[in-house]
Fold this sequence. Notes:
Elements: H1 3-16, H2 18-27, H3 34-64, H4 66-83, H5 98-104, H6 107-148, H7 150-179, H8 182-193, H9 195-205, H10 207-210, H11 213-243, H12 245-269
Amino acid sequence: MDSQVLVALALSLVGGLSTSIGALFVVLNPTPNLKMLGLLQGFAAGLMLSISFFDLAHNAINSIGFLKGNIWFFAGVIFFAIVVNFIPEPTLAPGSDSKDKKRNGDDGGKDMMKKHRRQVLFSGIITAVGISLHNFPEGMAVFLGSIKGLRVGINLALAIALHNIPEGVAVALPVYFATQSKWQAFKLATLSGLAEPLGVILVAYIFPSSLHPDILEGLLGSVGGVMAFLTLHEMLPLAFDYAGQKQAVKAVFLGMAFMSASLYFLEISLPEEMSL
């Protein structure tokens, strides 16, 4: 492994592991109530939607054209709309209604909390996967930036580190709420950040020789479609349930604004001939 790749790996680890800082904010505080969880789910949904539309899909359309970019994006939507039909929904059995609650005491309440925890855990896993996929091109950008110059690589790694802290919160919070395990929350948030150094390895040793850039952009556009579908299908309903529609919508737009600003500052950290 040559020195350029080692430097890029080190810089990408600085950026990627900052998701762990976000996770620490979660695990060092008490478990939030449902309303706070709903607001942060809305914020995380805003992050995911912004990544999907303003980053992945946007770059695909700019790189391979409007028609091809949209085809790839909606192929991702359709693909996961089919896949989700085979994923068991975390719903209650039909008998767990108010009559059963009266008959069985606290059983209905326990079942409802179990349902909440399963839904929240699923949304946390979705967020972790989506953010991991989003972090791949960031790792690639760190590698290319460090080749351009150490100053560019360091600036970009620091910008990504700041950008990744709220992503760590978005992953760790639902996992902590669902599992009551600080270690599981910290671990999943950290693993989502480790996609960044993996992106360095992929671009350094695999992609240049085996994958056409247009195919890569198309696949990332499809990832945007998958993330958009899962956000609207899973995360947004949870935010509405827990925080209320008005408050959740505000949190969504706050998350979108934060991620859009973050993507902008990442973009201006790059040389003119490079882009995320």
